[in-house]
Specification:
This protein is mostly beta strands and 181 residues long. The protein contains 2 helices and 13 strands. Crystallins are the dominant structural components of the vertebrate eye lens.
């Protein structure tokens, strides 16, 4: 049973993941809407002075390709860049984020997964995931490889151990959030 579990996320269209960037304060001016990871949106906007997050938890970056200063945003409205503690009005890329933990009660190594990852073990050198934080949206954990077997629906919330999402064990060896740029 130790190598049978993987985790995946429901497709973005079912989760309603959405972040909108506005050039001007108070959600005015040109805007750029995003529902998945985006490595470079600065060609669409010359600056970013306000953001509306309608779904998901996001990390936004000052420069393209997920570089520079970064800010974590959850559902809500940010009418000016100081609202997300921004140093200036420059943002150029964004990723959806998910938090997984090696041990129960959010202990051990914390993994911030923000893109497709076919193997937690290969990518993060972890064999176990025993707790998680779903900041927004929903996940589906699968019992067997290739998204087969029992499924566990995990809604927004904090799960201190596998039994809180209905599982007997917490081994999760693969992750595929099914979110494409």
């Amino acid at each position: 049973f130790h190598d049978k579990a993987i985790v995946g996320l429901l497709p973005p269209q079912l989760l309603f993941l959405s972040i909108t960037f506005y050039e001007d304060k108070n959600f005015q001016g040109r805007r750029y809407e995003c529902d998945s990871n985006c490595s470079d949106f600065h060609t669409y906007l010359s600056r970013c002075n306000s953001i509306r997050v309608e779904g998901g938890a996001w990390v936004v970056y000052e420069r393209p390709n997920y570089m520079g200063y970064q800010y974590v945003l959850t559902r809500g409205e940010y009418p000016e860049f100081r609202g997300w503690m921004g140093l200036n009005d420059r943002l150029s890329s964004c990723k959806i984020i998910h938090f997984l933990y090696e041990k129960v009660d959010f202990g051990g190594q914390e993994v911030e997964a923000a893109e497709d990852c076919p193997s937690i073990m290969d990518r993060f050198h972890l064999r176990e995931i025993n707790s998680c934080k779903v900041l927004d949206g929903s996940w589906v954990f699968y019992e067997l490889a290739n998204y087969r077997g029992l499924q566990y629906f995990v809604a927004k919330g904090e799960y201190r151990n596998p039994s809180e999402w209905g599982a007997v064990v917490g081994l999760i060896t693969n992750q595929d959030p099914q979110i494409k740029c």
